[in-house]
Hints:
Layout: E1 2-7, E2 10-15, H1 18-66, H2 80-131, H3 136-163, E3 169-172, H4 173-186, E4 191-195, E5 200-203, H5 205-222, E6 226-233, E7 236-243, H6 269-272, H7 277-287, E8 291-296, E9 302-309
Helix pairs in contact: 1-2, 2-3, 3-5, 3-7, 4-5, 5-7
Amino acid sequence: MTVRVQRPDGVLTLLTTTRRLRESSTVPPLLWMAGMALLVTMIAVMFLRNQVRPIRRLATAADALGKGMPVTDLKPSGAAEVRLAGAAFLEMQGRIQRQITQRTEMLAWVSHDLRTPLTRVRLQLAMLADSHPDSRAEIGESEQDLLLMEHMIDEYMAFARGQGAEAPVSTDLAEIIDDVTADARSKGSPITLELERPLVVALRPNAIRRCLTNLVENAVHHGRQVAISAVRRDDVVSIAVEDDGPGIPEDLREEVFKPFFRLDDARNPRTGGAGLGLAIARDVARGHGGDIRMSGASLGGLRAELRLPV
Length: 310
């Protein structure tokens, strides 16, 4: 290749090969482009990591809050929008905790204050029965109503104790299930038990014990045979309580979780309970980030499944 350059004193002629010209003009720009692209990619990755890390921490905190565990180590960081979301989350957590505390304390106060007049009424009924022997039947019915009210108060108090000051701790759920099953068997209830061990979960032991006790008592009350099983699938622990009783119609399986709801065949206060057991059980489950679902059981009755996140 010949290159001629016009100069004031004449023409400068240069001779070179095509290969040398191509290498000197093409390879360096490509290398520069590749190097700049790599540098920009590295900067972008570092920037995205710094922005994604606070979002992941916020997601972890939200998951912990949903499981009933307090979040104390979250510090808003990252972009302005992410910091704003973190601050809003902390404020929301504070409001939720205050509402739970106020509700639990009010429930405990009301339940405690109700015991005094109930005790006086029971004493008056006992004295009235001694002075009016012919009215013992009517007085007995009133005493049964008092027993029902005291049972309801006991349910309130147990719920308040379980959900109030108790903090989540790492607990072997299998041991709690063993204890609840042993208590039911000691009352003469035949129960089969099948567990995976261990089932270590962060939970409120007393609250979960109350939840499982309510489910087992409900199954024992309506069925002759009860089967309890617990397994862990990935990040969820599933506890199933089945019975061979009459079951619950599908359109009423959500209604039974409402407070004071009782089915028609269980409206007798002496046999049907207060209608709070399943409502408290679901409230405890949801307070741990889980839930309770009703379905048909393999024994022919009802299957209550408690699912708790690990």
